[in-house]
């Protein structure tokens, strides 16, 4: 089934205001909904449409030949520089592959919830397609949803018990500081234990621990968090779309 970006708006983020006053469980829920289509590009001869059955093998092979780890997202508010984690090879390879093919140059930050996250990667006007597939989750306890974390959105739990990621929709966490008591509750819920360093991050710079072990974190902002904050200030409509769209272009940069 295909959906517009409005339809694949994170259902759980509709309840983010409830979450922000203390009810846990609001989580990004962006769905993968594109169909297969070939297209020639300037950077890759062909963006081969993937399926969930073919994605792992193709991304594994791609990752061995493309060790890119630095990404630059450009917007009308400025640039955001990110580092991708080598410990999440499928997500890194997928993001680099789509970036090099120019796929993300047709996207935008289409969902903005101040104090929570900004989400990008999709657009109703896209012509370049990447195929209908999901990426197996690559949870790593080292990587949490701290402020500035880069993670991949996904289907909701009822349709995705394995918590596989969307093929292309990503988000950058803004978040707010949490208390130690809140973190202990999330530890119990997710059957995990935060390190002292992670607790210090969440209680100082902030983040969204409700999303840990639910969505794959595969990178982080290393420069330009002020740009994320500017995007988060965009006026939005009742469905959290920016009233003035925020297009982005994305490229890999030298190590």
Automatic annotation (TrEMBL):
<keyword id="KW-0732">Signal</keyword>
<dbReference type="InterPro" id="IPR029000">
    <property type="entry name" value="Cyclophilin-like_dom_sf"/>
</dbReference>
<dbReference type="GO" id="GO:0016853">
    <property type="term" value="F:isomerase activity"/>
</dbReference>
<feature type="domain" description="PPIase cyclophilin-type">
    <location>
        <begin position="78"/>
        <end position="255"/>
    </location>
</feature>
<dbReference type="InterPro" id="IPR044666">
    <property type="entry name" value="Cyclophilin_A-like"/>
</dbReference>
<dbReference type="InterPro" id="IPR002130">
    <property type="entry name" value="Cyclophilin-type_PPIase_dom"/>
</dbReference>
<keyword id="KW-0413">Isomerase</keyword>
<dbReference type="Pfam" id="PF00160">
    <property type="entry name" value="Pro_isomerase"/>
</dbReference>
<keyword id="KW-0697">Rotamase</keyword>
<feature type="signal peptide">
    <location>
        <begin position="1"/>
        <end position="26"/>
    </location>
</feature>
<protein>
    <recommendedName>
        <fullName>peptidylprolyl isomerase</fullName>
        <ecNumber>5.2.1.8</ecNumber>
    </recommendedName>
</protein>
